[in-house]
Amino acid sequence: MPTKWATEADWTKHKDTVISLYRQKSLAEVMEHMQREHQFRATARMYKARLKTWRISKYTKRSIDKIPPASVDDATVSRTPRRPMPSIDPALGAPGSQQKVLDCLKILEKYINVKSTGGRWEVSSTFMASLQHSDWLAQITTVTIFLKGGRLQDGFRLLGGCFEACKTNLKTESPLLTSEIFMGAFQLFTISPSLGWSFLKYIRDLSGIVLNMEHPLFLLLSKYLTLDKEAFANCSDLFLGCFLDLMARCVPGWDQSHRGALLLTTGRIFLLSLIEFSQYEELTRKSKNHETMPLLLGQQVLQYQGQLPPAATRSDTLSLYSLFPARIKVVEKWGGINYLSFEVL
Q1: Cα distances (Å, whole numbers) of residue 25 to 103, 291, 319
Q2: Are the beta carbons of 75 and 58 closer than 8 angstroms?
Q3: Is the N or the C terminus of the chain less surrounded, counting Cβ atoms within 10 Å?
Q4: Would you list the domain boundaries of the chain?
Q5: How far is 327 from 296, CA to CA, in rounded Å?
């Protein structure tokens, strides 16, 4: 039976998936994944021609040229070879905006390399648990539900508690802070851009106090504040992909199970953020009456037509929902304020 090669319609349908995979995997791995998961067949030559047409490349010469040479201190701290930063999609804006995104990625690499090589972030059962669940981020997600529903007083009270929790997290210098802060800010942007920027500025200033103003996290958040709203939203998948790559290269014991846990948490948090206030009230009622709570599965994402980071709908994230279903749960916080989270089944 002759091979059925990908048609023009197939390329259009799977464009975003191919680009997302190509930024994190080798071409051979992309081809294998696409054929296995989507019955999408094309030769390496076809892929290269299509990626060239889309103006997608692994790396840019500018990103290699502009990476400063490693200092003596860097050489003694980092045990993994430096790799050039990925290219930036033209959709992220003018060259100046693209360079800011590259700067963010270089700071992210420094943050993970410098801290992880001392063994501080070695994988443990506690570390795995933190990947699977983040109450701090779940609370910020509930804040967005409150604010969308006009429950402003409770929303800002819960947000104030999130800041206190963040202060504790800053002291531990968890590697997940970079992705959690980004995800929290993205959700607040959906309420109001000024609220999103205010959140980032507050966390940035707090990191300068708890850590110091030379710390990579402070520098990273400062660079975030120079991006415009569109660039910040559009580079979410790029940042996640680089974060996963850096964790795999730098953290001892990191493997596919940890990568999957982080992707699953990312997707579930954004699924929670889709819930309307009326649904929140219904879930709270069901929780009090011990009724059956709904599961978090991929169908909710697929039906959503609004703004959502590609990180929540990438193919490798969607494939995990059915394998590891979770139930929405309601957790009581202060004085009757409940927040939504999830428990793995």
Answers
A1: 22, 43, 17
A2: no
A3: N
A4: 8-54, 107-275
A5: 6
Per-residue pLDDT band for 131 (boundaries 50, 70, 90) equals: low
Spell out the alpha helix ranges (H) of the chain.
8-13, 15-22, 27-38, 44-53, 61-65, 72-77, 95-116, 125-132, 135-148, 152-172, 177-191, 193-210, 216-224, 229-234, 236-250, 256-272, 277-288, 298-302, 315-321
Q: What is the value of pTM for the model shown?
A: 0.66
DSSP β-bridge partners for residue 59: 86
3-state secondary structure of 24: coil
Alpha-carbon gap, residue 326 to 117, rounded angstroms:
33
Q: What is the pLDDT of residues 217-244, one digit of tens each?
A: 899 899 888 887 777 777 777 788 888 8
Give me the mean pLDDT over the 71-95 stretch: 48
At 75, is the pLDDT very low, low, confident or very high (cuts 50, 70, 90)? Answer: very low
**Residue 240 contacts residue 179 (beta carbons within 8 Å):** yes
Distance of CA 243 to the CA centre of its chain: 8
Report d(CA 165, CA 203) in Å as an integer: 11
Sheet of strand 326-332, all strands in order from the earlier edge strand to the far edge:
295-296, 326-332, 338-344
CA distance 228 to 108: 19
Residues 18 and 194: their CA atoms lie apart, in Å, by 34
Structure tokens at 273: 């953020």
Could you tell me how far CA 76 lies from the centroid of its own chain? 30
CA distance 268 to 298: 9
